[in-house]
Write a structure and sequence with these properties.
With 226 residues, this protein is of the alpha+beta class. The protein is 23% helix and 31% strand. It is built from seven helices and eleven strands. It has a six-stranded mixed β-sheet with strand order 4-5-6-7-9-8. A three-stranded antiparallel β-sheet has the order 1-3-2.
């Protein structure tokens, strides 16, 4: 199963090159003027069904991560261009980040406030908006995004508890000692005619290879209408 849209964090030029070669009929943002699109985050979409309307980035003012931004695209369905959806992604620093260890400052809280500022500027009322990313937190950023701009966790909208997304097990000994937490989220703000119809974190993998990430990917399904 392939998603119509992928919200990616921690990309590298090598990962982008691999995905470009293997995600057939998909497009992504290509902006050589902004390094973060190939070194931090990007968004891929199924070009058979969706087309790009516009795109951009919003600064998160993260100490030590100048290229981490709110990366966003606005996509329209080819079958009905009146149906537009705002997709965005971000990667917040984890609690073991050197800056947080040295200062005690949780950068995820002001980063969430920055995301809210960008949403107020970019997303008009009644537009379907989806935000997903590695938030590296399970309380304040989610609370802020909900209270300030009405972004709801997709699992909450389904009346389900959010699944564990970190760490992937089995993992290396250091990760194995960490508690199970929900650090990766998909949040949405939907007009009344749209809804979340399903969501899951992929926790089953085949083979015996080392996991490609210490975080589980989260998937959500939406029904969108004008």
């Amino acid at each position: 199963m392939r998603s119509d849209v992928y919200l990616l964090q921690e990309v590298t030029p090598a990962i982008i090159d691999y995905l470009d070669k293997n995600l057939h009929n998909y497009k992504r943002v290509e902006d050589p003027k902004r390094l973060g699109w190939t070194t931090e985050g990007n968004i891929y979409w199924n070009a058979e069904h969706l087309e790009l309307v516009d795109y951009g980035h919003g600064d998160l003012a993260l100490n030590g991560y100048p290229n981490r931004c709110l990366f966003w695209v606005r996509l329209a369905t080819k079958a009905n261009p009146a149906i537009k959806v705002f997709f965005s992604t971000a990667h917040f620093p984890w609690s073991g980040d050197s800056y947080e260890i040295e200062t005690g400052i949780n950068q995820r809280i002001p980063a969430a406030m920055k995301v809210c500022e960008h949403f107020r500027r970019l997303v008009p009322p009644q537009e379907c908006a989806i935000f997903g990313g590695d938030i590296n937190d399970d309380f304040h950023p989610i609370r802020i995004l909900s209270e300030e701009v009405g972004l709801m966790d997709v699992f909450e909208s389904l009346d389900l508890p959010p699944p564990i997304t970190h760490p992937v097990r089995p993992s290396d000994p250091q990760e194995e000692m960490r508690p199970n937490r929900t650090l990766d989220w998909i949040l949405c703000s939907l007009p009344s005619q749209c809804r979340v119809i399903g969501a899951f974190a992929k926790s089953v993998r085949g083979g015996s290879h080392i996991p490609i990430s210490d975080h589980l990917p989260v998937t959500a399904f939406f029904e969108v209408h004008v």
